[in-house]
Amino acid sequence: MLCVANFFFFKKSILSINSIFRWFIVFTFGLFNVLWAQFSSLPNHWLFQSIRDYNILKSDTTLPTNVYPLNPFVYQAFSNVDTNYRMFKYIKNDPALDIMFEKDVVSIRKNNFHIRINPLINFQKGKVSGDTSFSAYTNTRGFIASVQFDRVYIETMLSENQSVFPTYLYQYSKSTGVVPGQGRWKTFKGSGFDYAFSAGIVSVQATKNLNITLGTGKQKIGNGYRSLLLSDNAFVYPYIKFEQLWWKGRLQYICNYAMLNNLVSASRSIPKNTERLFQKKIFVYHYLNVGITKHTRVGFFQSIVSETPDDRNVWRGDGIVFSPVIFTQLAYYGLNQQNNVMIGMDMQQKLLKNVVIYGQVILDNDSIFHNQDGGYGYQLGFKWLGKWQDWRIMLLSEWNDVRKNIGFSVWPTIPSYTPPVVNPGSSYTHFGQSMNYTPEVGNELVSMLAIKKKRWITAFQINSQDNDMARVLYTKFLFGFVLNSSYNLLINLGIENRQAFNQNSNYIYLQLQTALYNIFYDF
């Protein structure tokens, strides 16, 4: 299986990493002339994604259901909006009420052309109690917009945020320089954080079987809450993805080229009056997903993070990094080179149309073959997506175990979150966060229950994590009401408890949010 991509075999070429990045941008501009952006760059919030997953599973389709964001053309028949229970049953066709509770803020549709614009907000205010008590809050303002015409789908999003976090998130963000999943920050009113991020993608259905997506965003591969292959844990990153679907989705092949950042200086000397450049590294992954039967799928995964540039920001890698054929990098580099190769496999077995048993295995080095405990990880889980009359239920239980020495841990899980003074090099990280498993190392049991009746939602989550340095017990309860299902406008009460290092903290808050993407604070 070949991927449509420019592929150069050049032995030990000496290139600036910035020139590689410029080539990447020029290549993508050359494909489409104008760079647009898209909100489908972020996998949907798990609570609402489960509605779409249910609709896909019940349809008995042969399409894969574990690669996110979903292709907007292939999966457009499967909505993540529940049956539209009107806010005011006997008041219809009122434009003001429709915009507030039923429809997009802006929606323009003509023939095959459709524009949508909606707010992106998160207003959260609460009280943290534990060793000390204080107020915490988050204030997010932004927008998302999309346009679709013929075989082109474009979306963009932008948000500006200020937060005062519970203690463990404050310590983590201070020590690492990033807000989890949302990038770098500036100090805000002493103990607060000011941060912003944007994402955008253009997706083109080039042929019946080939979709090309490019821009900046996140991706995920897996059926579970976590993913050991690729998750939406870290910050957004630029990428171009070639996705092929054959035989009604029974065969899926993806090759993806991306650029990641290490938060260390790209060169040893920084010119005066200039901001330092961060070290870049090339990230490539391939994924071959095969539907053995209608209910059984097996996926094969390989990824590589290239060796980083030298202290003069010159990259001395070779062209095998860019190979579009799965497992060619493994054959060439092996598992113990500076070019960090990881291989993996996942499985999905569907039972009774709405029950899924799933699992993943990853291997990052050959420690296991030398009787050493490290270099691998695995996941086992199941989820049940049910519906009865006006009730929807999602039940998930999942076990993850990632052993030490695997190549995506940068920041140790210790009380002060003090980062080691090392170069993260070709680790599976971006902006100091794992591209895969949120707790980074150790084992974790995740249990989740979500119940939705019409517009009312109740959800409960518990994470029990254990590694060599810490035990963390995280629980979360949410009770809310969907104000507008067109863009997941949700008002809710939240209660979070975290126990770690003999410390017990509680956070109780009220929140008005557009629940459109995932942010992982459960570590």
Give your account of this protein's structure.
The protein is globular. Residues 4-15, 20-38 and 409-422 have low confidence and may be disordered. It has 523 residues and is mainly β. Helices cover 10% and strands 47% of the residues. It has five helices and 28 strands. It has an 18-stranded antiparallel barrel. Strands 1-17 form a two-stranded antiparallel sheet. The chain has a two-stranded antiparallel sheet with strand order 2-12. A hairpin with a 4-residue loop joins strand 15 and strand 16 (296-305).
Short description:
Helices cover 10% and strands 47% of the residues. About 9% of the residues have low confidence.
Which key phrases capture this entry?
mainly beta; 5 helices; globular; two-stranded antiparallel sheet; 18-stranded antiparallel barrel; 28 strands; 523 residues
**What amount of the residues lies in strands?**
over 45%
- Indicate the radius of gyration in whole angstroms: 23 Å
Output mean pLDDT: 85
- Cα(first) to Cα(last) distance is 38 Å
Oligomer: single chain
Number of strands: 28
Structural class: mainly beta
Layout: helices, strands, pairs:
Layout: E1 15-16, H1 17-32, H2 46-58, E2 67-68, H3 95-101, E3 106-110, E4 113-129, E5 134-149, E6 152-164, H4 167-176, E7 178-179, E8 183-184, E9 186-188, E10 192-205, E11 210-217, E12 220-221, E13 237-246, E14 251-265, E15 278-291, E16 296-305, E17 314-315, H5 328-333, E18 340-351, E19 355-363, E20 376-388, E21 391-402, E22 429-430, E23 433-434, E24 442-453, E25 456-466, E26 471-484, E27 489-500, E28 503-514
Antiparallel strand pairs: 1-17, 2-12, 3-4, 4-5, 4-28, 5-6, 6-10, 7-8, 9-10, 10-11, 11-13, 13-14, 14-15, 15-16, 16-18, 18-19, 19-20, 20-21, 21-24, 22-23, 24-25, 25-26, 26-27, 27-28
